[in-house]
Design brief:
The complex is a heterodimer. Chain A is built from twelve helices and no strands. By secondary structure, chain A is mainly alpha-helical. The longest helix of chain A has 34 residues. The mean pLDDT of chain A is 96. By secondary structure, chain B is mostly helical. Chain B has two domains: 391 residues, Ribonucleotide Reductase, subunit A, CATH 1.10.620.20; 26 residues, no CATH class. In chain B, the strands form two sheets. Chain B has a two-stranded parallel sheet. Chain B has a two-stranded antiparallel sheet with strand order 2-3. In chain B, strand 2 and strand 3 form a beta hairpin. The chains are: A mainly alpha, B mainly alpha. The interface between A and B is large, with 92 and 106 residues. Chain A: It holds the Pfam family Phenol_Hydrox.
Chain lengths: 335, 522
């Protein structure tokens, strides 16, 4: 049964804002759309930036990758602020529950030695790589062109801080409630041979002023590292008695899958641009392939060290295969 | 063995909240060795600011990412529930009057884009500061500003469906003459170096003048039945208090790092006080003329939020560092009795080219103004409105012919008078490389002459119209280029919003008069 409320019926004058109606017709628009489309000022900039007088305050020349219409890129997750923080609130709560369980069951103390070393020597230092990701994505959030792409970058930058904190909390737990292992992890990051390629790549990508190229490089490294650590090693952990590792890995893996969605959508928008598509595809092939090649080069010593510590985990094989797949996706060739 | 954090007999291993927070946020930086540090942070030297120890930055809030997300998600859930309920129940019919929405039109056109700019440029600070503490604080503020932009859009989206003037705000921000006041202000900040931006927006805008800029809009909403905007205002409050604390921390940090920073910061305070203050001209007229139900006068607001809280409180604290109250503050104080009247009188005459409407104040409204401004209203402004009343009775509501000349710096029409003399128009001239530039006040002239190479670049909407860059030489062509629709501009009485409002209120009254037997409850 239904009851009827009587309300005053008033005909709306319009269903949405003019700039939204021009694109999609005058019909009710989602909050993502109204809160994102066309909100970046685009003309009549008053003054040249003192930090770069050759450009405008917002300028589409900060990357070789351009879109005829910046808003042909939409975040497939439709993240505006509210759903973004809501999703991340759930994510961090789920991680906290896992960590409580891990601590309650003493699972970190029961990690086999090789796994403990992988975490302490190789995984914890990557909190610094997350920190590099934060810088790279903040640069993109500032210098990108169009509010949909910069919004995705800003959330992703914020995510990197969250990832670093997840790793740090694992490090504190693994260190028996102290920050000793975090301090050691920093030394590993600064000095250990298996991490130096990654650190070099991180530093060089931070100073890359083309945000599109920087994103490609960060993404290439992420795809090798996240797949290796949180997919491949997750499986290994399950079969080799390292449940603590697996319980942590699931959260990093789910974040990564979520994060890749906006990046893939951006690559697609670049490729499918009605005017610049061919140029963008050629740029993706060239710079994407170079980024993957560099990534493979810098992640290989890292993976080799994992193989050493775990006594043969096919880590190097795994990244080599992944790199070939990613490379093929960029160049459009069969893997 | 399991870890047992509650086990008190164990050695005190558990980290304190502060140590834990620092471990999570601070230890992440490292000295680069594959690239130069200057290459990584290339914008930190050119403003002359010296930072010796980035680690001395005190985080005012120890917010970890999980806590931030949880707290913000809960706030948004509550806010959006209010917005949905208000929309569903046609809550807009409960406003004091449709004319109230003129204040909100100015808000979405002129303030919401500033939130967006703040988002982008706090991301710049989050990239370019060499310390992880201030970088993280800036990143939080960057995404907070997305929140404010979007919650403002979503709050006002429902009004856009029923009322004029809201529908084309992003394009208007880039094009319309009075919106170049906030636009040029914010782009001035965006084009500064990182430290000046921090003082301009983090300190001057978010701290020094935030109560003058935002509180009048939010209080106006609560006095005029605008539940969504009021709820937005409350919901933004805890973010704003974080931003204010950041602004205060920022200025103390710069001042404590090196004595040589003090005169540089003082110059920025002087500049940005006046720059921000001129933007409040739009708020002043809103407060005194656009709210059907008044909150407080501009003068009261200025005395409470600026003279008492800032000059009386903040600047006494800052004196410790050798900071003095902003240059030209005396001129601003002298203006408090006349500012809103002069600005509204101008907007009233030029609202044929605006995305809001204006109307002459009623007798009751004028009596309130006389009370609020006993020394100036009856002497200088009531006579103008009394004369205008006769014009209206004779069918000749006054609109100005042509377009106003704008100040080269603040871009407000040249409507201001000499400090302490409400009858003599102020006009300042400066020469730079053979060209004459006009400014509206001592403050704007001083700002111009400090950086003439910047302000001569200004995109002055009225100049641009005369140069034919704004859709064409005639007013209708310009208005079309602004994207204005019938009902957006001009006089409120008889406007589309006014007519609709009367019709809707009439229907509502008719509904109440006829008891309905098909009511719920069956």
């Amino acid at each position: 049964m239904q009851y009827e409320l009587k309300t005053q019926v008033i005909e709306p004058q319009r269903q949405t804002f003019t700039h939204i109606a021009k694109r999609y017709g005058d019909k009710p628009a989602s909050r993502y759309i109204e809160g994102s489309i066309d909100v970046q000022p685009k003309e009549h900039f008053q003054y040249r930036p003192t930090w770069d007088p050759t450009r405008e305050i917002y300028d589409d020349s900060y990357s070789v990758f351009r879109l005829t219409d910046a808003y042909s890129y939409l975040d497939p997750r439709q993240y505006y602020y509210a759903p973004y923080v809501t999703a991340r609130s759930g994510h961090h709560e789920a991680f906290a529950t896992s960590l409580e369980y891990i601590e309650a069951r003493g699972l970190l103390e029961r990690l086999p030695d090789g796994w403990r070393s992988v975490l302490a020597e190789l995984v914890l230092p990557l909190r610094h790589l997350e920190s590099a990701g934060q810088l790279i994505l903040c640069g993109m959030a500032r210098f990108g062109w169009g509010a949909t792409v910069t919004q995705s970058a800003a959330y992703s930058a914020f995510d990197r801080v969250g990832n670093a904190q997840v790793l740090s909390r694992v490090g504190i737990a693994l260190g028996g409630g102290t920050t000793d292992l975090l301090a050691e992890a920093k030394e590993h990051w600064l000095h250990d041979a298996p991490l130096q390629g990654l650190r070099r790549m991180a530093e060089e990508t931070i100073v890359e002023t083309d945000w599109g190229l920087a994103l490609l490089r960060l993404d290439a490294v992420d795809r090798l590292v996240y797949d290796l650590l949180y997919q491949h090693l997750d499986d290994e952990a399950v079969v080799s008695g390292a449940p603590a590792y697996s319980l942590v890995a699931q959260h990093m893996a789910s974040w990564f899958a979520d994060n890749r969605r906006w990046i893939d959508a951006l690559y697609t928008a670049w490729r499918e641009d009605p005017e610049l598509g061919a140029t963008n595809a050629a740029l993706l092939a060239e710079h994407g392939a170079a980024a993957v090649d560099t990534a493979l080069e810098v992640v290989t010593p890292f993976a080799a060290r994992i193989d050493e510590l775990l006594g043969g985990s096919s880590a190097v094989d795994r990244i080599t295969t992944t790199a070939a797949e990613v490379r093929a996706a960029h160049t459009g060739a069969a893997a | 063995m399991t870890l047992a954090p509650e086990n008190k007999t164990k050695k005190a291993k558990k980290l304190s909240m502060k140590a834990r927070y620092e471990a999570l946020t601070r230890g992440l930086d490292w000295e680069p060795s594959y690239v130069e540090k200057d290459e990584m942070f290339p914008h930190l030297d050119y403003e002359g600011i010296k930072i010796h120890d980035w680690a001395a930055w005190e985080d005012p809030f120890r917010l970890t990412i999980d806590a931030y997300c949880k707290y913000q998600a809960e706030k948004d859930k509550r806010l959006y529930a209010v917005l949905d309920g208000f929309a569903q129940g046609q809550g807009h019919l409960g406003l004091t009057d449709a004319s109230y929405l003129n204040a909100m039109k100015i808000f979405i056109q002129g303030v919401t884009p500033l939130e967006y700019g703040a988002h982008r440029h706090f991301a710049y600070l989050a990239r370019h500061f060499a310390g992880p503490g201030p970088r993280f604080a800036a990143l939080c503020q960057s995404i907070d500003e997305i929140r404010h932009m979007q919650t403002e859009i979503h709050t006002l989206s429902n009004y856009n469906k029923y009322y004029s003037g809201f529908h084309n705000w992003p394009e208007e921000y880039d094009r319309v003459w009075y919106l170049s006041v906030p636009k040029s202000f914010f782009e001035d900040a965006l084009s500064c170096g990182p430290f000046e931006f921090l003082i301009a927006v983090g300190f001057s805008f978010e701290y020094l003048l935030t109560n003058l800029l935002f509180v009048p809009f939010m209080s106006g909403s609560s006095f005029n039945g605008d539940l969504p905007t009021m709820t937005f205002g409350f919901s933004a409050q805890s973010d704003e208090s974080r931003h204010m604390t950041l602004g205060l921390e920022a200025i103390k940090f710069l001042l404590e790092q090196d004595e040589a920073n003090v005169p540089i910061v003082q110059g920025w305070i002087d500049k940005w006080f006046w720059r921000s203050y001129r933007v409040t001209a739009l708020v002043a007229q809103m407060l005194d003329y656009m709210l059907p139900r008044k909150v407080m006068s501009w003068k009261e607001s200025f005395e409470l939020y600026f003279e008492e809280q800032m000059l009386g409180g903040l600047f006494e604290d800052l004196a410790f560092y050798g900071i003095t109250p902003p240059r030209h503050v005396e001129d601003a104080i002298k203006e408090k009795e006349i500012l809103s009247h002069q600005v509204y009188w101008t907007l009233y005459q030029f609202s044929f080219a605006a995305a809001f409407t204006t109307s002459a104040p009623s007798d009751e409204h004028m009596d309130w103004l006389s009370q609020a401004y006993p020394d100036t209203f009856d002497t200088h402004y009531r006579p103008l409105w009394e004369k205008e009343k006769k014009n209206i009775e004779a069918g000749g509501r006054h609109f100005a012919p042509g377009l106003p000349q704008l100040c080269q710096v603040c871009q407000v029409p040249m409507l201001f008078t000499e400090p302490g003399d409400a009858t003599t128009f102020a006009q300042r001239e400066s020469e730079f490389e053979g060209e004459i530039y006009h400014t509206c006040s001592n403050g704007c002239q001083w700002i111009f002459e400090r950086e003439p190479e910047k302000y001569r670049q200004a995109w002055l909407p009225v100049h641009q119209i005369y140069q034919g860059n704004c859709g064409g030489p005639t007013v209708p062509e310009v208005l079309e280029w602004y994207g204005l629709q019938d009902g957006d501009a001009g006089e409120y009485i008889g406007s589309r919003d006014h007519r609709n409002w009367q019709a809707w209120q009439g229907e509502a009254a008719a509904d109440t008069a006829t008891p309905d037997e098909t009511k719920a409850g069956a």
